[in-house]
Specification:
The structure holds two protein chains of two kinds. Helices cover 0% and strands 58% of the residues of chain A. Chain A contains no helices and eleven strands. In chain A, a hairpin with a 4-residue loop joins strand 7 and strand 8. Chain B has no helices and eleven strands. In chain B, strands 2, 4, 5, 6, 9, 10 and 11 form a seven-stranded mixed β-sheet that branches. A four-stranded antiparallel β-sheet of chain B has the order 1-3-8-7, with no helix packed on it. Classes of the chains: A mainly beta, B mainly beta.
């Protein structure tokens, strides 16, 4: 079955607010990645966090990983209208097959 | 300069037809993938090639046949198209198969509509 599950499925906030999206997964992982997909476009890689890391930052993005709970969160601070997109987590299983397994995504709308 | 490109961007065809989608990457990557994204935005891997060798073949009908003439190209041929094949197909590439190098670069997608 599917590896990653994001919640919420949809999130609507005002510009300037922070957006938090969560991802849960089922098996041991080597790393977890977050991707963004703008409407009608391909996915764009945002950040990768390894299983031995707990937190990672990239610009306005902050990702946490809790391997004991098999969950990750993506925080976008000071959101902008341009952040409107779907956000997907994807995992690489530890010692398993080579594939990246994607969750269903969170659709974020940032209202100006 | 487009890193991963796909053609065509849109494909509308009749049931029963055969069609191909082409993908090219200019990143020098060893590994390429095909994904299918359904109407609910669920993204599922179909195939993966590493240096022209098939690595992953998910449970995909054998009407779908990937071909990799060289490591920069991975094409997808679909025979006897069915209504359920309607989806967006994404090509992607990654540097190689090592887990920490699995950051993937996606093409813009091919929107296939089977009538």
């Amino acid at each position: 079955s599917q590896q990653g599950e994001e919640d919420p499925q949809a999130l609507s906030i005002q510009e300037g607010e922070n957006a938090t999206m969560n991802c849960s997964y089922k098996t041991s992982i080597n790393n977890l990645q977050w991707y963004r997909q703008n409407s009608g476009r391909g996915l764009v890689h945002l950040i990768l966090i390894r299983s031995n890391e707990r937190e990672k930052h990239s610009g306005r993005l902050r990702v946490t990983l809790d391997t004991s709970k098999k969950s990750s969160s993506l925080l976008i601070t000071a959101s902008r209208a341009a952040d409107t997109a779907s956000y997907f987590c994807a995992t690489v299983r530890e010692g398993g097959s080579e594939k990246l397994v994607f969750g269903k995504g969170t659709k974020l709308t940032v209202n100006p | 300069d487009t890193a991963v490109s796909q053609t065509p961007k849109y494909l509308v065809t009749q049931m029963g037809n055969d069609k191909s989608i082409k993908c090219e990457q200019n990143l020098g990557h060893d590994t390429m993938y095909w994904y299918k994204q359904d109407s609910k935005k669920f993204l599922k891997i179909m195939f993966s090639y590493n240096n022209k060798e098939l690595i992953i073949n998910e449970t995909v009908p054998n009407r779908f046949s990937p071909k990799s003439p060289d490591k920069a190209h991975l094409n997808l041929h679909i025979n006897s198209l069915e209504l359920g094949d309607s989806a967006v197909y994404f090509c992607a590439s990654s540097q190689d198969l090592r887990p920490r190098r699995k950051t993937q670069y996606f093409g813009p997608g091919t929107r296939l509509l089977v009538l």
